[in-house]
Design goal:
With 405 residues, this protein is α+β, with helices and mostly antiparallel strands. It has helices at 3-6, 14-27, 41-48, 55-69, 89-96, 108-111, 115-122, 171-193, 238-248, 256-264, 270-287, 306-315, 319-325, 337-357, 360-366, 376-385, 392-404; strands spanning 72-76, 82-87, 126-129, 142-149, 156-164, 215-218, 226-229, 232-235, 292-293, 298-299. It has 3 domains: 3-193, GAF domain (Beta-Lactamase, 2-Layer Sandwich); 213-357, Winged helix-like DNA-binding domain superfamily/Winged helix DNA-binding domain (Arc Repressor Mutant, subunit A), CATH 1.10.10.10; 360-405, no CATH class. The two termini are 24 Å apart.
Length: 405
């Protein structure tokens, strides 16, 4: 394939190039990916429920424009599954031919670089123009998407996307998508202040949730994952850690189908998912751990984690503290789609923050991480930052020579 398997040749955006690199690592080649329908009509309706307060605002602001300009507007869940596709009838029919339909998985893990899937990974607006798409069938199209974030917790609720011709990649389109997302977020914030149950609360409840007393999820590094209760670690299986991590990042809860998509790539039957949650409930119940409610599955109280702590520190600009508290890759042996995406996000944001810092000390600390050993850019930066007589320069030169071989 030549350049098509190396990365997009029509962009200087480093984030899109990194997205292509992630896509190649997950999918090997563009020809090997295709969007799969992972939710049926009933599941799609259930998955839309957490976004019910946002849909009218998005419809009002974006659907008429999409119909008038030959675009389609789509809304995804936090995993990149399309929950609603509206807009130009002719464009929707064309989009169906590439699998852009309600219930289809358009996450980066499923179809590689694309606006909604990549926006969810980066948690920022993304525009992907034609050949910048990883999935070959999407290359006649352009798209712009922005993530939907909870106004209080900052949790991912989904993404909003405009797809179609070149107009979908226009800066004005990006501005409009951003404005629609901000308006939807403001609407949700007003509803929450008025006491309307929203994505931050368990169904039928009101008031803010308090963190589970003394509970903390440990999922970073090579040590076995554990739920720390009152200072005492309760070792978890990888699957149970994945479930708790997924629920801890979804205040509105996750349906059985959503858990299957996030952790099994949609391959697990509902009975398998329910059985795993039941086993986890029994374990937590016997040890006084946090309770898991049903319909949808959700934690009765927020559950902080070491991964979440690192992300919070990075969001505040405290990258040196984040680097100190980062003990290693997130569940490094897990292949669950949502975990892989979050793992890349944590390591990517940490790397970006450290390299932007310009401090030799921070770069040296970053390079002690196993995942940084092959980072030639970081070694080059360290070499530039070190004083001329620093003994550490010799190590940096040797590492760069090794990487050039």
């Amino acid at each position: 394939m030549g350049a098509a398997t190396e990365g997009p040749t029509t962009t200087t955006d480093p984030q899109l190039r990194l997205s292509w690199a992630r896509s190649l690592s997950h999918l090997s080649a563009p020809e090997r990916c295709t969007p799969q329908v992972v939710l049926d009509h009933t599941d799609v309706r259930e998955a839309r429920a957490p976004l019910r307060l946002l849909m009218p605002v998005l419809d009002e602001l974006l659907t008429p424009l999409a119909e008038d300009t030959g675009l389609v507007v789509a809304v995804t869940d936090p995993c990149g599954v399309l929950l609603r596709v509206r807009g130009s009838t002719a464009t929707r029919r064309r989009a169906e031919s590439m699998g852009f339909v309600e219930g289809a998985d358009w996450s980066e893990n499923a179809v590689g670089t694309n606006a909604p899937g990549t926006a969810l990974v980066l948690r920022r607006p993304v525009t992907v123009h034609r050949d910048q798409h990883f999935y070959p069938e999407a290359r006649p199209w352009s798209c712009t998407a922005a993530p939907l974030l909870h106004p209080v917790t900052g949790a991912l609720l989904g993404a909003v996307d405009l797809t179609g011709g070149d107009a979908a990649a226009d800066p004005a389109t990006r501005a409009l998508v951003g404005a629609a997302v901000r308006a939807a977020r403001a609407e949700l914030a007003l509803a929450l202040r008025a006491g309307t149950p929203g994505p931050s609360r368990a169904a039928g409840r009101s008031g803010a949730r308090e963190p589970a007393a003394g509970a903390f999820l440990r999922v970073l590094g090579d040590a076995p994952p554990a739920l720390v209760l009152g200072g005492h670690p309760l070792e978890l299986t990888e699957r149970h850690a994945e479930i708790l991590l997924a629920l801890s990042r979804a205040p509105a809860g996750l349906s059985t189908a959503e858990l299957s998509v996030q952790l099994w790539g949609g391959r697990a039957q509902e009975t398998t998912v329910r059985a795993e949650v039941l086993r986890l409930r029994r374990l937590l119940g016997s040890r006084g751990g946090p309770a898991i409610a049903s319909r949808p599955y959700r934690l009765e109280a927020p559950l902080p984690s070491d991964a979440g702590r690192v992300l919070e520190l990075l969001a505040r600009g405290s990258h040196r503290r984040a680097l100190r508290e980062y003990t290693g890759a997130l569940l490094p042996h897990s292949e669950a789609p949502s975990v892989v995406a979050l793992r890349h996000r944590v390591t990517g944001l940490l790397r970006e923050a450290v390299l932007a810092d310009g401090s030799a000390e921070a770069v040296r600390e970053y390079l002690t991480l196993p995942e940084a050993a092959e980072d030639a850019e970081a070694w080059k930066l360290l070499l530039r930052l070190l004083p001329a007589r620093s003994p550490a320069r010799a190590r940096a030169v040797l590492e760069l020579e090794r990487l050039r071989r």
